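Task 17 of the worksheet. Students: predict the tertiary structure of the chain below and write it out as structure tokens. Keep your answer in the requested format; marks are given for formatting as well as content.
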Amino acid sequence: MSESHALKIAAVDKLTPNAVALTFDIPENLKEVYNFKAGQYITLKHELDGKELRRAYSISSPPSSGKLTVGIKKMEDGTFSVYANESLKAGDTMEVMPPEGRFVFEATTPQKIAAFAAGSGITPIMSIAQTVLESDPENTFVLVFGNQSPEETMYFKEIQSIKEKYGERFFVQYVYSRSNVDEALFGRIERSTVNFVLKNKFKGTTFDGFYLCGPEEMIHQVTDTLKENGVAEDKIHFELFTSEDTEDNLAEELEGKTQVKVILDDETFTFVMDKKELVLDAVLKQDIDAPYSCQGGVCSSCIARLTEGKAEMVKNQILTDGEIEEGFVLTCQSHPTTSKITVDYDDV
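Model answer:
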């Protein structure tokens, strides 16, 4: 498992009244560690009121910039997001895990890309959009971006700058749920929005890929509508920044104990857990420093391979059927269903 490093915050920039961008200073000896692909995220670790918090935030800067920047929106009843917006300043240090994540764009042949983002879901899209546009002079990028109002739109100035720089290769359709603005759609990103983009505004355009980032309901609506329009599933890439709570009915059905072997950083740990527990929860109770971040099945930090035994996931928004067949699980969502399991965090 990759270790975190204490990085100094080089800048804190106000994006909206309720969002900031943090840029970290990367020492020369750690440049390789923090190389990233457009669309990836980093996990920030911080102790607040005696409790360690881990939060995953997508990188908004493109890899070509040489910067490591994340956008953080203040969430209602949030803990770390409130602290980041109200207390962090340039010069502070924070433990930062190396970049990870599978929601990435890698340049190949010339491509036409479209993205649908809502709220802070714009963060990884900023990195992807700039990478698409700079990687080939024939590439085009269409952004559909939903917010409450222009004032609450993260990276608004930066998006306008990209628009000026790339002209007819970069198109933006704003959608506002609480503001009527010229040339913007009113409401939320939903079925009608997708159809308007595909059948009206960009009729006749064949897109090579779609990138979606936002709340779960938006992801599902956009995905379903794209498929209705004949878009192949392998062209649709998505990342959730929030996920609806799923009731864990599986725990009620399971009885008994499981003997667990955990392989992490070339060390082996063994213990016994109740099948009603989630694997990650049981691992952390043993003071084993397993990788994790959201603990809600949204990020991919806690992925491990099951090399012995079986486990069932409460929910899965990340792993493909092929990866599940290879034994990969999200340990934060997995209950053991056999008397023995071996969980290998190194074989990922």
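Marker's comment: The chain has three domains: 5-100, 112-239, 250-344. Residues 122-135 form the longest helix (14 residues).
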